């Protein structure tokens, strides 16, 4: 899902109202599905491409922890395997398939569902959200990515490197995935910070329609990120508060750390939202200054020349008896009067601060 | 109830203040009432038109689950059958009859009342809400629709198709109805999204009174939908939290899914409300740009021609002694001066960015 | 208490700071007090005017339920009877006397105090609040109305008609009073809805100071009604949540219904408050449109005639050598030029949408 | 502490950061300290000036209730007596000395600290807050006033008059003090109400810089009062909720009454704050109306006279061949044309409502 | 971290997304690390520079309380000592290293982590935040300062002076550190108060772009301080509410005092934020007044001279038959008319309050 402009943000793929609960739709443009299993114990780490429900059944039945990694939602039968072979609740499978869903945690006994949204900044200043669905079973974890992305690369590394992650259970693996999603917001936040700095400069210098449109686009991106991260924080809070400790006490401290990171991201987003409010003020004030400047120019010109035009109008009258017209130096006297009037007005304008370099007229 | 414009939104049909609790009114313009019962067990599915309290009594007394489907509120005696034959509390019957009520869940022992509002988008961009009242009894469910609509068509299909819905109890049937109501908001939300896109374009291009009126109408629709869905979410949350599990543990997970959908709808509505706030900003900024543009035009014209008019005024004076008037090339010299003044002013305007294609003057 | 304009809303009658708790004041302009008792059991219903503490003592000592109806607060001794004969706490009596108090529920053992505010719309668009204080004792209920009004007329009817109200206890009677107060807000809300429709039309057509003043008056009324109803809802919520069920389980469902009605009133008031915010936007936009229109008129006139005036100024110059002045068709050529300039400018204005029927210039 | 303008509101007297907890400072401008004890039992009531720690020791050791009344904070040794002789916690003493503190309730075993702020309206529309610190011990109460004021006069009266206050314990005495502080806000609120009425009139009539400054000053006063009373309400709510009933059950009902009064004060303050928001709208709208009026005047004058000036300019041209100039009635015909043009424009202005007594131009 | 302008506020030093939990980065520009231990018991107080993990081990193993004071984050191995020798959780160490973190309290058994932000005002009106991390172990406390500063000077003094702080445990020492941080906000708040007073004067006198920029900078500083202190208050509240009293009952009253100080700081910050909102209003109103003033000047000049210019235009016409031109006193009569017109207009302007010293035109 891309966020930028007023795109129809919420057209999630979903069955028609009144459909059977647990139903899902596979849209034509969904990414083709690939599925593989990473299985390990203390010594070995095997990667299998999975081509049938039976293969999936065999691998999860073997001892050791298994990570079933699904990428792309184009193939409904794979989702049916997860439902039928792994015993995931149909409603959970529907939430995996009908993207986008709001980030959430749902407790289905020992098949807990965690939905998160991975954020990535695009080149045109938009942000792309990719749904990451995680089901943590007793000795396996299913991860489903809406579209291919390199989110889980570092986890693959750590598994290959035989890091502590390999000596922990499925709950820790689920945590590691969530942590990767949440930490992935930090670079996005930094890009938005740079974007706001650019924008501030542009609004100061050229406060036009274009700057306003960009400002609104950033506000919408921040709004969506805020809502998404807020939900993610809620889901993590639910895990922390959860009765019966869904993921066991020993990984609780790690989930608390992820929760803390989500709060940091929220703080940053909220600060940026306040900054956009300030930029809107600056924008309006710039527009207002420009109008003031235009009006001041008009007023100065008009106020100086309208009296002068009146004066020359007087001596354009055709009365038979206008003594000044006959005077030898009349014409030059009129010039003198006009120069005096102009200088008086200019002096008055300067005293009021309407001329020159005061703040208001600088651009 | 239609929402659009400032129609008197809240004139619910209700008895006068101080009336006996449980009293209800049947307004003259209410839709005539039809009532039928759909009864089934593992093998059969019968549909009966019901014409008397005795028929209703006989059908609900028979074994198996019964769905009593009432459409229209024009006939008070049908509501009295529900009160007297099925033992529904008079206050619940009054809430069914005195539409519109806020969506809510009320626990009356084993006759739980659920009130929801079905939303439908109209052709003129308004939204129509139809009250759906559900009473879930031990082995029957009463549904009352304020006006006829095709909300329950998919449920009829699923019942005829012998889907799982036929093998579940009254709580699941009540859930299926609520789910149909809530999922019915998604198409409404999508239509509003498209409407907002149109509106954004209109406000950018022709920011007039008409666009503002449409924007306000959309805001009111969003406000009402938000309030309604918020209440619906509350009612579902009450069922989820409910002490003693009003609907049993096994359908709880389905109600949680409906609760989750209501949150998705709320998210969408809130985003759209923020977008309307942004559009208001764009509108005000467009109006302001137009004023700036008008003032700039005036200023440019006046600032160029007022000095020129002054100059020609000078040589319209009738002094006897004005040496320039006698010069051979005086007239042409004046033209030269005037052209020079104009060009200087034009250059100055261009340097300040008041001419040409800067952002401010584009429409 | 009348609400409209900036009247000093909160000058409640109260003793000076530091006075003994439970003290109350009887202001000179308070309505004279009348007190009567309505006593009934299964068969009879008697109405007694009460003239002394002893009579009150005798009536409440008799078996059956008694409603002691006090109207007007002008006579402090009647309040003392309530304190001394019926054993109502002095603080409760002070709250009854020192009107207006905020709506509230206070549990004084088996002498529970309920304070509500009855709302009535006035002819000049203001709203009048009348304090209704209810003390529910074991087999009597005291109601105190600040001023005479017909709030309890329907209850008298129902009592005379031997309705179920006569077969219930003091808690149900207290409920019936509160219900009458809350349902009395619905007609007020409807009147305000009509008022807002009028106001919207006025603001569209004649957005002046007068419309703004009326809008602010409505906002203040809505603000006060919201605050009052919010407190009333709180008091009802307190009764519903109340530990030890102050009023017994069997009337709880009725108080829940009253609570639900208070929520409906609050929904309506909140919607109206949002509508007033929208009207403020429309008002500001109308003012802004009017300024735009004025400026556009000025700009069009000035922009057309300033260049023309310059042209005629040229040929008003008195140079000896101005060839055009001698041409045979010079005068008519100038007219041609001037008409061409005017038409060009008019065409340019029309192309920019400044002329004619675009939205901005329509009123 | 005075509130008005942007005075540095929060420069409380406090020791430097990092100082020992419980330290306090005695500023040079603090009011000199006086201390006296009022001791009573059923029969007698004695007032003692206290000059040493030993006297204090002796008086509190005697049977009966003692009120130790301290006024002014200029003498640190008196505060040390309270700490050392009465066993008040050093942190509590520091809060008494380092004024202003936020109103609060702190439970230190049987030496509970209550801090409140007494409000008094000043003649220049500011408000002065005086800290009132109360420590309720087992059979004594210490009250410390930051500055002398007549807050406790009515309590002295009631004690002298042998009112019920003399037959209650230290908790009731502490309540009576808090009640005096809270009821002291009612006259302040009333003064502010009158001030707002004045201000509204001024803003309607003369919406200048001065009115805006006064409006902002009132907003700041309301803001501070709101914050202060909010804290006071919190402190009272803490006493009401308090585990173990810090002050015993029998005075709980009195503290509930004080809590209710604090809610009434808060309601009033919040209403006034909403009214100031409305006044800001009125102010902006007045300013805007004035600009509209100025622009309309300009537009009417310019639009009438610019065409006329053009017309007279035409016949000021010096073409040899201008037939109209030779006509006998040419001059008068031009006058006719000019009058016709003026009347047409005036008619057009009137039709648009720009002339005369419509709302916009009224001041 | 400096706050002022739109600096990229949230670029905390952190490892890339997906890194192992507990990892931390040591940036090149971090301050070099110094570490020393202050150990004491009833009699002695020793200060040791620590150069190896073994020294740290030895000192903390000795009896008595030890304060391990780390300054600067340039040396990762010191942080590893803390993790490995003192048994601090790797996630806690990562929070110490990856500055800035939000202020928080995290319970890791008997190694509780407290993160706070020390605020210091800079000369250019910005504010600098320095992270202070505190880990309270059983008989030692680790403090880590991001950069050197004199925050803990007073504590050193008190330790040297054998103040009560030396006779309390590690919890009291941790409290003393937090108290120093929170009390350090008071001088910052006072400086901001003075800054706001300056700013108010500037906005009244010279409401230009520069004042607006400074106002926005102050708003951002206040926003960040508010957020930081809010989190600090939350962390203290968590300690106060904490199940199992993380720091023991006897220091709870001190933490409550620190919590109370944090509320005072928050009150001050919130008041200042409201004041900045008021200043924004004053700014906009000043800008608006200036535009009004400009327009009024233009209108007065134009309205007076445009009719006069028309009049003199009339008598510049060249009609053969214009009787007035031949009159003996025609010219002087025209002057009389013009003076009369001017005076009439001036009188009308004065009556409307457009001339002279009314509020609007004063600067």
What's the helix and strand layout?
The structure is a homopentamer of 363-residue chains.
Chain A: E1 2-3, E2 34-40, E3 45-49, H1 53-61, E4 65-71, H2 76-85, H3 90-97, E5 104-106, E6 112-121, E7 127-136, E8 140-145, H4 153-160, H5 170-183, H6 185-205, H7 209-241, H8 252-314, H9 323-326, H10 330-351
Parallel strand pairs in A: 4-8
Antiparallel strand pairs in A: 1-7, 2-3, 2-4, 5-6, 6-7, 7-8
Explained architecture:
Chain A has 363 residues and is α+β, with helices and mostly antiparallel strands. Helix content of chain A is 53%, strand content 14%. Chain A contains 10 helices and 8 strands. The first copy, chain A, has helices at 53-61, 76-85, 90-97, 153-160, 170-183, 185-205, 209-241, 252-314, 323-326, 330-351, and strands at 2-3, 34-40, 45-49, 65-71, 104-106, 112-121, 127-136, 140-145. In chain A, strands 1, 2, 3, 4, 5, 6, 7 and 8 form an 8-stranded mixed β-sheet that branches. The radius of gyration of chain A is 34 Å and the shape is rod-shaped.
Question: Top keywords for this entry?
Answer:
homopentamer; 8 strands; 363 residues; disordered C terminus; rod-shaped
According to DSSP, the number of beta strands of chain A is 8
Q: What's the total helix number of chain A?
A: 10
Mean pLDDT of chain A: 86
Class of secondary structure makeup of chain A:
alpha+beta
Q: Largest chain-chain contact?
A: A-E, 70 and 67 residues
Strand content of chain A: 5-15%
Quick take:
The structure is a homopentamer of 363-residue chains. By secondary structure, chain A is of the alpha+beta class.
């Amino acid at each position: 899902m891309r966020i930028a402009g007023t795109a129809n943000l919420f057209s999630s793929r979903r069955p028609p109202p009144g459909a059977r609960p647990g139903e899902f739709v596979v849209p034509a443009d969904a990414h083709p599905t690939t599925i593989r299993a990473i299985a390990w114990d203390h010594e070995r780490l095997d990667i299998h491409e999975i081509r049938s429900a039976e293969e999936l059944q065999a691998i999860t039945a073997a001892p050791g922890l298994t990570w079933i990694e699904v990428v792309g939602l184009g193939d409904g039968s794979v989702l049916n395997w997860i439902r039928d072979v792994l015993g995931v609740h149909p409603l959970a499978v529907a939430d995996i398939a009908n993207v986008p869903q709001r980030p959430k945690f749902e407790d289905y006994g020992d098949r807990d569902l965690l939905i998160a949204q991975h954020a990535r900044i695009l080149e045109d200043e938009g942000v792309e959200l990719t749904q990451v669905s995680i089901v943590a079973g007793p000795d396996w974890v299913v991860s489903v990515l809406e579209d291919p992305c390199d989110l889980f690369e570092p986890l693959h590394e750590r598994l290959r490197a035989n890091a502590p992650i390999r000596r922990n259970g499925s709950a820790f693996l689920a945590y590691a995935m969530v942590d990767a999603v949440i930490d992935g917001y930090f670079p996005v936040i930094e890009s938005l910070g740079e974007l706001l700095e650019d924008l501030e400069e542009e609004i100061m210098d050229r406060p036009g329609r274009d700057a306003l449109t960009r400002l609104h686009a950033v506000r919408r991106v921040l709004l969506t990120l805020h809502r998404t991260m807020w939900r993610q924080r809620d889901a993590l809070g639910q895990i922390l508060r959860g009765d019966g400790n869904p993921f066991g006490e020993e990984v609780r401290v790690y989930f608390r750390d992820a929760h803390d990171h989500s709060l940091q991201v929220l703080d940053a987003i909220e600060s940026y939202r306040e900054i956009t409010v300030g930029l809107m003020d600056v924008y309006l004030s710039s527009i207002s200054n420009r109008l003031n400047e235009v009006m001041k120019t008009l007023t100065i010109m008009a106020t100086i020349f309208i009296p002068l035009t009146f004066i020359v109008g007087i001596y354009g009258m055709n009365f038979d008896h206008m003594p000044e017209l006959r005077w030898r130096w009349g014409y030059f006297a009129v010039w003198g009067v006009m120069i005096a009037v102009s200088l008086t007005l200019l002096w008055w304008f300067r005293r009021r601060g309407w001329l020159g370099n005061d703040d208001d007229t600088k651009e």
